[in-house]
Amino acid sequence: MRKLFLIILVALIACGESNEIQQPATVVELDNTIRIDSGAIAGNQGDDGLLEFLGIPYAAPPIGGRRWQPPMAVAHWDAVLDATQRGLPCMQPKSASGFYGGSYPQTSEDCLTLNVWTRAKTASDGLPVMVWIHGGALFRGSAADYDGAGLTQKGVVLVTMNYRLGPFGFFAHPELSLEAPSGSSGNQGFLDQIAALKWVKENISAFGGDPNNVTVFGESAGSWSLSVIQASPMARGLFHKVIGQSGARFMPLPDLKQARWGLQSAEARGESVAQKITGQTATNLAAMRALDAQTIMQGYSSDPAMRDNFDYLTIQDGAVLPKEVNAIFAAAQQADVPVLIGSNANEATTFDPALSNPSLQDMDYGPLLTRQVEALLPAVGAQLLDFYPPAAADSRRSWTEFNTDVMFTQQMRLWADYMEAVSSPAYLYWWNWRPVINGSDRLGAFHAAEIPYVFGRLDAFGIEPSAEDYAFADLMMTIWTNFAKTGNPSVAEVIDWPAYRSSAPATAVLGPQLSIRQGIRSEQVALISAGFAARRTP
Fold it and tell me: Does residue 29 carry a catalytic annotation?
């Protein structure tokens, strides 16, 4: 026994001696050239320690026979890839109007790229990672519209991505379903987002980011996407926190093969789209793939029945979504991660028809409001109109408040309610800062108004910033990055933010007076929720 003890002691001493002389791990200092899985890239290097790498391909170009296919692995490259310019936006209409108007001079099907900003000093810094998914109704937008330099000053690595949009990103067709091992089609845009998150998991450590601390965040359709990603089993393990800004997809969804909720099946609609664009009576996927991308885009966007039907920009396909988003969350089957979610006080002001058409300034919004309520939520229509009176002197205000609540307030509150069935917390906000646009704050806390403050870029939307705006933007960036770092958005000595509970629906009011309130617009939200539930009742 004594001999055995001596042998063990000698072995332990030897191990100790070995550890003492072991060389420290190599520290990889970052510069503007980085090697990732697919090859070396060279980006931009600023004087302030900022490194930016732009237009990095995360998947193969979805062109030719790969059009409408799930994203495929990008080919390895041997030479150093130039990563100093943003990639082209994905295919979308060339012109735009309204408050969010503007267009991109060039778009492309070859658009599956992402951008990375970092101030890490070494590859082993392990900074929290924030991945932004842009909005634009899943029909417009680009990662090129966002700059991550500001947020990186708060100690995070920032990633933005492009993903396929409109008819290229959300097209179901029987022939496509037959091609796929999953037997499904559609939701290509969501598959792109998931592929980008896989790229982050596999490569972000090279930029000094921590692949085990990834926060996905987005606004409008970007937030809508996050509710899908949190619901999808295909995205599990690719993110660890969610920040959803003004968007969720808990409304009834079209099914891949069945007509439901008064909607065509997604495949049937895809056949109809193909017939209209190709001019052929037979459904022919080969004919659709033979068309150039611009012809498809023009054909799709020129037909209001196709262009304006957002229902089909998320499909219960059996793969990305084995069930409706609502059903997955209701069964507590979503990813169990902390969420920071909320909406703005005056979301719908920028959707006002009179904003883009001054001739409508004096229109009576009552009939429009009544038609919307009766079409969308007939079971509770009469009760809803008590809260949003169409005959009121200010029918425009009723219209604005209804659209704000039905599209955003209720959806984000429902998201918070659904999180009670899992262990991770939800933090709910109500954003009511009023940016000054063109000398006026009449738009209030409008849809997307918080984005310039989150990114620290107050030049967006023509905002006329004050010293208070800059201070508030710094606070917003601190809140968002605190959550990314710790899973709690509280800021010491500024805001102590309790987790949401339906029995105590604490909501952080983010505006000129920070506060915690209970149950903002609860009666309206409850009625809208009941109306959507009635639509699902056979």
Answer: no
